[in-house]
Amino acid sequence: MRNEEIAKTLAAIGSFLEMDEVAFKPRAYARAAEAISNLEEETSEIYKKGGIKALEEIPGVGASIAEKIEELLKTGKLQYYEDLKKKHPINVAELSSIEGLGPKTMQLLYKKLGVKNLAGLEKAVKDGKIRKLPRFGQKSEEKIEKGIEAYHRHSGRFPIGEVAGLAESIKDMLWKVPGVSRVDIAGSFRRRKETVGDLDMLVISTRPKAVMDAFISQPDVIEVIAHGNTKSSVRLKIGIDVDLRVVNAESYGAALAYFTGSKPHNVAMRQMAQDKGWKLNEYGLFRKSGKGWIGLAGKTEEEIYEKLGLEYVPPEMREDLGELDLAAVHKLPRLIGYKDLVGDLQVQSNWTDGANSIEEMALAAEKMGYKYVAITDHTKRLAMAHGLDEAGLAKQGVEIDRVNKKLKGRIKVLKGTECDVLKDGTLDISDKTLAKLDIVGVSIHSYFDLPLKEQTARLERAMRNPNADIVFHPTCRLINKREPISIDMDRVIKVAKETGMVLEIDGIPDRLDLKDEYIRKAVEVGVKLSVDSDAHAIAHLPFASYGLAQARRGWAKRSDIVNTWPLERMKKMLKS
Ligand code: DGT
Ligand code: CA
Ligand code: CA
Ligand code: ZN
Question: Which residues line ligand 1 (CB under 6 A)?
Answer without folding.
Answer: 2, 187-188, 193, 196-198, 200, 258-259, 261-263, 266-267
